[in-house]
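Annotated sample (chain length 229).
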Amino acid sequence: MSNKSAVILVSGGMDSATAVYEAMDQGYEPYFLHTSYGQRTENKEYECAKALADEVNAVDSLHIETEHLAQIGESSLTDDEMDVADADLDSDEIPTSYVPFRNSNLLSMATSYAEATDSSALFIGAHTEDFSGYPDCRPEFFEAFQNVIDLGTKPETDIDLMAPFVEWSKTEIAERGLELDVPYEITWSCYRDNEPACGTCDACAFRLEAFRNAGTQDPIKYAERPTFS
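Output written by the structure step:
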């Protein structure tokens, strides 16, 4: 067994699942952190996160329930009065699915967990198509948060914030995951429904396009499988 460990933010989706396998490929023992914050598909996401933890025999799997992001609102993921928009893969606008400053909240909890478990790394699966729409997925954001970790933890604490896919496309993540034998059949990305996935929201669209570009079919069920260009 490896003598180094990493906390991994695990949403239940394909990016974080690939991050788990990437961390393990780099020799880290995985500690899972999954957060339910009032998102529409939180139960399905948690189910997938638990299944993945069992699949890889995670050292520990921490589930945190928090309501403050849902109470703050202003995101179609947490506000029932806002509709989840259909995908527009060419848009440069910040989508309604953006949860204000979510990654800072999640990374703060993950940093606490990493420091408490003496983990030497913290992994997040954010990538280029995320930061094109979500400001808290930009490389500059993660560089700045590394400084927050360094300044806000004990002097002897050394935690590397790892965003291995931050310059990658969704297709490249899918290709890497297929190389690593990530069990994508137990992951979930849909913003709108618990089962089957809708196939038409942003998350479904990017995921379906990635698998198509990688030359294979996404193994989960969809209500629709549109052809996105």
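Annotation: The CA atoms of residues 46 and 66 lie 13 Å apart.
Annotation: The chain has a mean pLDDT of 91.
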